[in-house]
TrEMBL record:
Belongs to the ABC-4 integral membrane protein family. FtsX subfamily. Forms a membrane-associated complex with FtsE. This is Cell division protein FtsX. The lineage of its organism: Bacteria, Bacillati, Actinomycetota, Actinomycetes, Kitasatosporales. Its main location: membrane. Keywords: Cell cycle, Cell division, Cell membrane, Membrane, Transmembrane, Transmembrane helix. Part of the ABC transporter FtsEX involved in cellular division. It is found in: Cell membrane. It comes from the Bacteria. The chain crosses the membrane at residues 21-41, 179-200, 221-254, 280-299. It comes from Streptomyces fagopyri. GO terms for biological process: cell division.
Length: 305
C-alpha cells in the first residue's frame, strides 16, 4: 500500500509540474551528454596519442652541398663519410634508440616526388638538393631531447626534428576543446541542479496541505520526502537515458555511418563501441543520484521534517 501511494504521488507530481519536469529532463540530458562526450574525447585523445606516438620518428638531417652555401649550421661543408659513420656508431650505442633507418638523398627525392609530385616546386628540385637523414625510432617518444642534445649542432648535422612536436600541438588543441566542453558541462549541471531544486520546492509547496496532514498523523520524514525525491530521480533518469541515446546516436552517425569518419579519416584510430558502452552506466547512475541528492537536501530545509 505504501509503495503504491509513493508511486501514485510520483505520477501526480510529474504531471502537475510538467513544464518544469521537461526543463529538468532537457537540462540533465544536455549536461550529461556533454559529460559523456568529454569522457569519450579524453579516451579518443589517449587512443590517438598511443597510436601516433608509437609511429613518430626523430629525424637527423645531414648537410648537403646546397646547405653548406646557405645554412650557418653547415658552414663547415657537407657531411663526410667519416662523420656519417660516427653518427651511426653513436646512435647504435644509445639505449633510448629502438631502430635507425638511413634515407639517402635519392630516396628522399623519390619520397618527395610521390607525396608532392603535383607541386610546382617539385619540377625544379634535383636529388642532390635533398638531404640525407637518419630516421630514429625511440623506445620512449618522450626521450627526444636525448637525441637533440647529442646531435644538434654537430658537424655535418643540419638539424634534428621531432615529429612529436607537431602532434603535441594537435593534442593540445583537442585537450583545450575538451576542457571547454567540460566548462559548458559544469554550467549545465549547475542549471540542472537549480531547476531540480526549484521543481521540488514548487511541488512541495503545491502539496503543503497534504504533507501537513501527513505530519499530523505521524508519518515519518522519509515517508513524506520519498515521493518528491523519487520525482526528481525519475526526471533525472529520463534525462540520463536521453543523454545515453545522444552518445550512441552520435557515435553511430559521426564515426560509423552518416559522416563515416572512420572511412574518410583512415589515419585516425577512433574509439570503439566498448568505450561508449562503459560510460553509459556511469551516466545513468549520475542522472539518478544527482537529482535525488539535490531533492533530499532541498527538502530537509524546505519541509523541515
Amino acid at each position: 500500500m505504501r509503495a503504491q501511494f509513493v508511486l501514485s504521488e510520483i505520477g501526480v507530481g510529474l504531471r502537475r509540474n510538467l513544464t518544469m519536469t521537461f526543463a529538468v529532463v532537457v537540462s540533465v540530458a544536455l549536461s550529461l551528454a556533454l559529460f559523456g562526450g568529454s569522457l569519450l574525447m579524453s579516451d579518443q585523445v589517449s587512443t590517438m596519442k598511443g597510436y601516433w606516438y608509437d609511429k613518430v620518428n626523430v629525424s637527423v638531417f645531414l648537410c648537403n652541398k646546397s646547405d653548406a652555401e646557405s645554412d650557418p649550421h653547415c658552414a663547415k661543408g657537407a657531411v663526410t663519410a667519416e662523420q656519417k659513420k660516427q653518427i651511426e656508431s653513436d646512435l647504435g650505442k644509445m639505449t633510448v634508440v629502438q631502430k635507425v633507418t638511413y634515407e639517402s638523398a635519392d630516396e628522399a627525392y623519390k619520397h618527395y616526388k610521390e607525396q608532392f609530385g603535383d607541386s610546382p616546386l617539385a619540377s625544379s628540385l634535383t636529388p642532390d638538393q635533398m638531404q640525407e637523414s637518419y630516421r630514429i625510432k625511440l623506445k620512449d617518444p618522450e626521450k627526444y631531447q636525448v637525441i637533440a642534445t647529442a646531435f644538434d649542432g654537430r658537424d655535418g648535422v643540419q638539424s634534428v626534428q621531432d615529429q612529436k612536436g607537431i602532434l603535441d600541438n594537435l593534442f593540445g588543441l583537442l585537450n583545450g576543446m575538451n576542457w571547454a566542453a567540460r566548462a559548458v558541462m559544469a554550467m549545465m549541471l549547475v542549471v540542472a541542479l537549480m531547476l531540480i531544486v526549484n521543481t521540488v520546492r514548487v511541488s512541495a509547496f503545491s502539496r503543503r496541505r497534504e504533507t501537513g496532514i501527513m505530519r499530523l498523523v505521524g508519518a515519518s520524514g522519509f515517508y513524506i520526502q520519498a515521493p518528491f525525491i523519487m520525482e526528481a530521480a525519475v526526471a533525472g533518469l529520463i534525462g540520463g537515458g536521453v543523454a545515453c541515446g545522444f552518445l550512441v546516436v552520435a557515435r553511430y552517425f559521426i564515426i560509423d555511418h552518416g559522416l563515416a569518419l572512420s572511412e574518410k579519416l583512415n589515419l585516425i584510430n577512433f574509439i570503439g563501441w566498448d568505450a561508449v558502452l562503459t560510460k553509459l552506466p556511469l551516466i545513468l547512475a549520475t542522472s539518478l543520484l544527482m537529482p535525488a541528492l539535490a531533492a533530499f537536501f532541498a527538502l530537509r530545509k524546505y519541509l523541515k521534517v
